[in-house]
Amino acid sequence: MVRGIKIAVIITLLGVVFGSCDRSPKKNSVADLKHTTLKIPVVDSEDLANRLYTYYHHDASNQVQYEENKIIEYAVEHGLDLTRDSTGLYYMIVEKGIGGYLKEYEKGTCFYRGYTLDGKEFDSNFGKSPLRFTVGELIYGWNVGLTKIPLGSKALFVIPSRMAYWERGHSDKIGPYESLVFEIELLL
Description:
Number of helices: 4
Helix content: 25-40%
Number of domains: 1
Structural class: alpha+beta
């Protein structure tokens, strides 16, 4: 009986939390993100909500929980089939590359675009020279994410602030406690 009540409460809360999401199929089945250069396929918001809901904090009591809720809401709103890893990074491989995987301290090259959850772009090198980097010398979210995608991949990272710039923010473009979205094209 108690289990049945718990399931009913969860289903009700799921409806309340994600009830305002548009669950209708997208016209072109590509995410409608303001600054995207990637053609990001979308998934059914209801299925996505059911999967990501396990990480949702109904009574968010701290910044980490509050941000995780915002990331989940963002993913569901845009139909992004994100995977959450054990560190709290959300990522999605948009086009899988054919290369191997980078390890810590290995060098790589990529194009990227970064923006906040509300779509404000703060940096991009698309149309410019690629970024040359060493895994382990970037913000933590990138260090984790770059080891999860094969070389040659196009991916999306949604990084909570604790894996980026946390309470200090960065310059005048990234505020304190700002979750970040990065489109990554990892070159071979």
